[in-house]
Every structure is written in C-alpha cells, then in structure tokens.
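Margin note from the TA: students keep mixing up input and output lines. Inputs are the sequences; the output is the structure of the whole complex. Example:
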Amino acid sequence: MRFLYKTDYDQDIRLVRHSGYAFWYGLLLALLIALPWVVSDYLLDQAIFIGIYAIAGLGLMLVVGYTGLVSLGHAAFLGIGAYTEAILTARGWPFPLSVSAAVLAAASAGVIVGLPALRVRGIYLAIATIALGTIVEEILARWESVTGGNAGLSVSTPRGLFGFIGAAPGFYYLTLAIAISSTLVVLNLLRSPTGRAFVAVRDSETSARSLGIHVARTKTTAFALSAALTGLAGALYAHKIRFLSPDQFTVLQSVELLMLVFVGGVGSVHGAVLGAVFLIALPQMIAIAKDFLPPAIGGAAGLQSAVFGALIVGFVLFEPLGLYGRWVKIRHYLEMFPFYRRGTYRRVRVFQRTERNR
Amino acid sequence: MQFVQIVIGGISQGFVYGLVALGFVLIYKATEAVNFAQGELMMLGAFCGLALATWAGLPYWAVLLGSVAILAAFGFATEFVLLRPVFGEPSFSAIMVTIGLGFLARGLVTMIPGFGTDSHSLDAPFKGQVIEAGGLVIGMEHVVIIGAGLLLSATLYGLFRFTRIGIAMQAVSQNQLAAWYVGIPVRRLNGLVWALSAAVAAVAGVLLAPIAFIHANMGFIGLKAFPAAVIGGFDSLPGAIAGGLILGVIEALAGFYLPEGFKDVAASVVVLVVLAVRPHGLFGQASRKRV
Amino acid sequence: MIIKKTLVAAIAGLAVSTTSGAALAQTQGVAPNEIVVGTIQDLSGPLAGASKHIRDGLQMRLDEANDQGGVAGRKVRLVVEDNGYDPRKAALAAQKLVNGDKVFAVLGHIGTITNLAALPVLQERGVINFMPASGARQLFEPADKLKAAWLVPYYDEMFMALKWLAKDKGAKKVGILYQDDEFGLENQRGAEAALKAMGMTFAESTTYKRGATDFSSQVAKLKAAGCDVVVLGTVVRESVGVLVEAQKIGFKPAFLAPLPAYHHLLPMLSKGAAEGLYAVASVDYPYVDAPGTAGDWAKRYKSRFSDDPSTFAALGYTVADLFIRAAEKAGSGLTADSLSRALESGPYADRTFGGPECRITPTNRLCNKTAGVAQVQNGKWVRVVSKLTD
C-alpha cells in the first residue's frame, strides 16, 4: 500500500501522481516506441488502427463520459475530418496545414451538432445526433464535385513530412505522437476549469447553473472539442485506409464508437484506449478462435455480430464499468491485499424516477 | 390525382413506421428505457412466422397469433435475463444492453445454416390484392397494416388510460419507489411491458413480411421508426402512429417532388425541425430535470 | 578504414536481405506439399448470402483438385477471412492472410471498397489478387502481374446490355432507378454512356437508399415520365420491391437489372411480378435441372451443401478452376511470376457453365469484356443473348 502525503494543491492535480505512475507509463512508452522492431507488420497495422480509434474514442468519451450527452453521430465528424484531409492533401497542402483544417472543419460541425443539445436531452438528443449524422453522410454523398460522391475518393500519402511518413513505421510513429499528445491534452483539459464544468453539467445541470457555469457554452465547447479530436482521428484514418466512401461513416460506425467507449469504461481516459484495443483486436481474435471451433459454428456467417453482441451484453451484466473498471478493481485488490473488501465496488442501485413532469 | 396517390403511398409506409414505433414508445412509457433492439425483435417475429408457416404449415392468421405468443414469451424472458440485472443502474446501461441484444439477435439468425443468409417471403391470403377506387390504388397488405396500427394504438391507449394495469405501468414510470410502496409488482410489470412490446413487434414483422421480405437485416427499419417516435413524442402512443404517418407522407412527397437524395434525408430534417420547435415531440410531455 | 569496411558490409548486408526478402515473398504460401490460398468474404454484412456461395464454390473446386492429388503434387488449403463489408476490417484481414497465414494468392475477394483497401497490403508483399468478386477498374488497371480480374465492371456490362435492349425494343424513353451508392452509380454511368452513344438521355432518374423497402414515389415518377425501358441499379430484394410496386400501379416497361439481380431468388420472391424482367448475365443460370455440365455441377453442389447454387457459387467455382488450371500449368516452380505467365499462355475456356473464356495478356489483365442478357420466362431465367461486346 502506498500512502501519499500531500502538502500542496498542485500535487492533487498532478498528472503523474507518484513514482509508480512514472515507472509503469514510462515502461509502456518505451515499449510503444520499440514496437516496430518487436512485432510483425500485421500487429503494427493493428496498433496504428488502435491509435486512430483511441483518439476518436477520446473525443466521444469527452462528450459521453464527461459531459453526459449521448451522441450517436460521431462517425460524421470522423468522416468530415477524413474527407477534408483527403481533399486538401490532393490539392498539395502540407500535412500540418491540412490536418489543422480538418480539425477546424470537424470542430465547426461539432458546434452545429451541439446546438440541439442545448434544447433537448436524453433520447431526444441521441435521435437528433443520429439525424445530423445522416445529413452529413448524405452531404458527403451528394457533393460529388468535391468529395467524389458515392464513387469514393482515394487518399495519397501525407505531404510535407520529410517524405518518409508513407511507410509503416513512419506512420506508426506519427499516429503514436498524435495519440499521446491528444491524451495529454484531454487529461489537462479535465483538470482545468473547462473540464470540471463538463463534469458539473453531467452531474446536475441545475446545480451547475446555480454555480455560475454557463451551461450552453459548456455543452457547445464539449461538442466542439470532441468533434475536433474525432476529426483529427479521421484525418489519420484517411491516410491509413487510403480509400474513402460515404458509407464508411454511417450510424453503424457511430454505434461502434459508442461500444468502444462503453466497453473501455465510461468516464475514464484509459477507457478510450482500452476500448480501441477491444474494437480492433476482437475481430482478429474471433478469426483466430474460429479455427478451433467446429466448422458449422466457426465458418458460419454472422459469427462476428453474434460475438460482439454477446460481449456487450456480458459487459453490461457483469462489468458495467468496462475494461478499465475491471482493471481498477484488480489494482485495488493488489494494492489493498490482504485487506480488500468486495463491498468497495458494490453497485449502487437507485430507484428510477421519471424525467418527465406533469 | 397523382398527388393523392403519392400521399396514399406515404400513409401506407407511414403506418409501417408507426407500428414499429409503437413498440419503442410502449417500453419508454413504462420504463423510460429505449429499446434499440426493437427492429431486431420485429425481425425475430418475422422469422418465427416463417418457421411456423414452413415447418408447422399453419395458415397465415394462425402464424400471426403463434408468433405473437412466442415473441411475447421471448420478450418477457429477455427482460428477465437481460434487464432485471441492470435494474436501478443508469439508463445508459440499459441502452447498451439493447444494442448488444440487437447485434446478438442479428448474428444468431444469420448463423442459422442454410436459412439465415437468404431472403424469404411469407404468403399472406391477401397478398397481391389491391383496392382500386377512382384511379387510386392501394395494396391490401398496406390496408391490413393500417388497420392493425389503428387497432393496436387504440387498444394500448385504452390500456394505459383506463385499466388498472395501465395506470400501474404509468405509476412505475413516474416513481418506482413510490409504486413499490403502494404494492405494485414493479419487476413483473416491466416484464409484462416487454412482452407486450415484443408482441407488437411480432405483429409488425409478420404483417410487413409480405411487403419487405424476411431477412436478417430487416430490423434496420427500426432506424426509421426512431424519428417517427421522436416526432410524435416518445411518451405518446397515438403520437407514435401520428409521427410515423407524418414521416411517411413527407418522405413520399419529397421522393416525388424534390430532387434526388432528399427522400433519404427527409426523415432527419423533419426530426430536427420538430425538435427545434417542440423539443418533446408533437404529442409528448415536457420534461424537467431535477436537481 | 575499419569503419568504412563495416559500413560497406552493413549496406551490402541490408541490400541482400531486402532482395532475398523479396524473393522469399514471391514463393510465400508454396510449400513442397501444400499451397495456401486465402479469400476475404463478407460473412457478417449485407452480402453474406453471396459470400457464402462464393466461398462454398471455391471450396468445392479446391476439394475436387485435392481429391485428385492436388496441383503438381501439392494440396491446396483455403483460409477464409471476414471483412464484414468494412474496408478497415478488409485491410486487417488482408494483413492477417498475407503476414499471418502467409498465403500465396487471395481469391475472389468480395466488395469494391474492401478490395481497394486491401490491395496495397497484397501489393507490398507480392501476393496476387486473383479474380476478385468485384468489377472495380483499379483491380485490373493499371496492368500489373499481381492483378487478374474476371468480373467485367458494371459500367461496361450495363453499357452493352442497355444498348442491345434499347435497340431490341426500339426504346424512346429510358428511365433509371438506382441504389444510392457506388454500385448503383456505376450502373447509372454505364447506362448514361449507352444512351449518349444512341443520342438519348434519361427521361427520368431516381434513386433509393440501400435497404429501402418503399419505392412508391420512385416508380410513380417513372410512370409519370412514360418510360418504356427502365434500368435498375438494384440487387435482389429491391428489384422485387420495384417490380411488385410497378405491377400494382399497372406500369409495364421493359426492366433491365444488373448482374447481382441475376439470382434464382428473384423470380421466387416476386411471384409473377418479375415475368419478362431482363438482367445482365454472363452464364446460363445453374439450375439443378439445367441440361449438360451446368446441371451436373448444380446437382453436385446441392448434394454437398444442401442449398441451391446461385451464380455466385458458380463464380467461386470458376475462379478456383482458373487458379487450379493456371497453377498446374506453372508446375512445380510455382511463383507469382510463373502463375502470371501461365495465365497469359491461355486462353482458358469455361468448361462448366458455358461462360466466356479467359484471355489475359501482360497489358490486359481482364479475362474478357463481354456480357449477356437473360430474361425471366415462366418463373425461370433464360439467357437470350450472349457475348455482347462494345
């Protein structure tokens, strides 16, 4: 067990709480940097996708986990970021400029999508985001002169980065750098007044308002930042996948992102990364496990959907705090051994009261 | 004349959306949870009907009743297995469970050997018949759907308004603890609501089968029924039908008179307009967040 | 001096390792007694039905070859991966096949965007993308020894088919109803080009979103425009929906559907509304009671898989058949180069389904550029014209 003796407010909000953090995260960083030499191309490819989806997951986590707003239209931001990046790279813009433009475009869209959030909440907000996501997808399909419409758009390698980013290890390091910086930005944001405002709005809007927090502005900021992060992920996604089409950014992709956030652990930054690992690694693990199953099951169509669904249901029933929640429990057990009490994490059940008022 | 025919087509399609939306609204009205798997329940109902028709060789109306019964039992069982454990947890968990259920149902049905990946048709005695009046045409399948939609929504509205069980359901949705104190068996009622909603989904599935064919992805119509429920107001049963109607008619008109692509975004645009003007839907109740 | 020598040795070593790496990549998947091939199908998405048939058709032919001793003494093993019609999953599946299972070739990969996402992965490792189940132009142009394509692009098929049909019917007003995605768009462009070549344009043009079940407004629009030929850019279910709607409102033009609608389910599901429908067809439909080799094959397929075969199953079988024959010609020294040369030494005739032959050259990687048209007569598909060309 570790006892932290704090004498300073800054120690409370430090990102690196104690030397244990520094050690383990430092080790992780070293492993990530050494990855291209340690694993095969195939695993490196997956690592790149995990990085991209972790950034997108961070974006969605900001809005769903920390501000409590349900968004089922985040694939639209992914798409806007991806298409902006693809179009500008084709016009010869250097990478830093095109990525900034992609992020700005996604953020502006985020402000627009956030507008319904100011008036409606709960399921109505979810439907509004689905509607806006559908509209964005339709615009991408119709605006043929710019986006190539349904025929799709191919993406060339990023420019203006000394030319070596196209190859796998280079792109991996780029993704890693952007993912790490995004994580640091989000962590810093969450300990700043803006981040705390997000959490306040999530817990109780009326209380937040009475504390002087401008709720409308907070929600809009949350959506804008979330969209910006997801747009950034979209820009990287465009270069990785090399061929874009509007039907890569439908409601199904938004649901996948939501699953990522939920399985990883709602309300934690680790959750975004763990969720990304889950989303990318799962199809591969199913593919490997398939060979051990009887052919009638392993070769059947629809196996992936069924396993996905079963896992989500399993997580909700047995581990609603997600992968990160499970890790926290394990870590707590190890830290408190042998004084661990199961009641620490017993789920609190509240009787539900209606949100409607007659 | 052309205009009226288009509107008739829109009304027919609108009632399809409305039937599916009824299921959504039913569950929301009683438990304030959203069932994202409603489309998949409809798909299961349709496949149930197909199984009864092909293997048991039952006639159409027996098939309808059979699938309703089977799906009602399935709905009750689903609530028991999946939703009781998440009783009392934030509603996000319930939403995720239903999303997971949807994936699971779709995957399992697709996995059925030889059967799951194909499209199938279900023979109805009224299939192919049309009613013609003064140059206007409407298919009999659509007339049956319209009839079923009106009947179901009237029955359910009456149930919620005038019967003890209905009032008990409303009480449960307003304040669970108080309902318990008053002696209402809250959990059993939730199971009942799910059974009802699954039964409505089965009716929608079996009636839709002659038009849209039975296949594992037919549940995606649920995505269209959502806006219908929202437009009508998520806690209003007649609102579900009304919302579906409005949506269907607007889509049909947009498809005919507006340029390409507007038919598909019509649903989204209408939803946004309604939410901007009346955030709780046309017939819904206003909500206020408590501190 | 020593540093310079070490530098030179290191650079030379690097050069050797990269070239030998390339040489190794060429023979990956080929062992003394086994050839490993892969296929990427959509087993959990919208094309699951077609993918199942393609996979079964591939497996059937490869098993037949293995039963007769394999290819030049090597048994062929098929590894199946799922792309779920998602380019991300397709890229990862390709990575698994190429770097994990180390396949020699990828056969019959389904889906256009999925193929385009997976192609760079295969090209980097010198793995052939053999006869994918997609007509995308990038899969055979620009010509490359790692590309070989069987399916004619929808654009060209629709171009040839519509030109023939419009002339046959003396069409004055041609309308179109197509799916609002890249598949539908390709059909629309081919049809548009055909009309342009005849000095016409569309009298009416309508679309629908994939998965739609209601076509009343689109069909009403086409009827209002008085079309006598309607091009459909639809797949099976949507075609049936359109035909039933047209029958309901008494609209009777000649309908022309693309290749994916050429399926036995279509007349079955539409119950008479599809009578007279035309569709692009490259082979005679492999009904179980068809005469000749096609019927025999269909009976074998049905007894093995308990399912009526479709043209997708025939496609899988044909692709595997071409692979086996070319690999046998390449002999024991099987590499990507030798397989490509064996293909070029064709042409390879279609011995089972009466389809077109495969003629590949170093500059033309598309087997054939012909199309045929079939019509629903008495509830069954009958081919009415074959070997249409530009």
